[in-house]
């Protein structure tokens, strides 16, 4: 039974997961959240959180290059 379901997926059937647009939208949401965290960290002069936010922003920006 499971083998038949896998063959259906290979033939263009429905798959489970995100589309590229859904993934990009999720990353853009995360980017916005981390940018806000970075702004707050800078305002509070919290360098530890600022470094973490900058690291996360770099990761997200790298993922958005697809």
- What is the element string, with H for helices and E for strands? HHH
**Roughly how much helix do the residues carry, as a percent range?**
over 70%
Unreliably modeled segments: none
> If you average the pLDDT, what whole number results?
87
- Count of DSSP-assigned helices: 3
- Main sheet attributes: strand count, strand direction, barrel closure: none
Query: Which structural class matches the secondary elements?
Result: mainly alpha
Strand residue percentage: under 5%
- First CA to last CA: what distance? 35 Å
Radius of gyration: 19 Å
Shape: elongated
Please report the total strand number as a whole number.
0
Could you list some keywords that capture this structure?
about 70 residues; mainly alpha; 3 helices; about 75% helix
Report on the architecture of this protein.
The chain has 3 helices and no strands. The model has no long low-confidence stretch (mean pLDDT 87). It is 76% helix and 0% strand. The chain is elongated and about 50 Å long. The protein has helices at residues 2-10, 20-43, 47-63. It is mostly helical and 66 residues long. Helix 2 packs antiparallel against helix 3. The two termini are 35 Å apart.
Secondary structure topology:
Elements: H1 2-10, H2 20-43, H3 47-63
What is this entry, summarized?
By secondary structure, the chain is mainly alpha-helical. Helix content is 76%, strand content 0%. Helix 2 packs antiparallel against helix 3.
């Amino acid at each position: 039974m499971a083998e038949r379901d896998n063959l259906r997926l290979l033939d263009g059937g429905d798959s489970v997961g995100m589309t590229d647009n859904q993934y990009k939208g999720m990353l853009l949401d995360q980017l916005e959240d981390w940018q806000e965290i970075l702004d707050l960290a800078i305002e509070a002069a919290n360098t530890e959180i600022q470094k973490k936010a900058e690291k996360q922003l770099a990761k997200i920006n790298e993922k958005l290059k697809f």
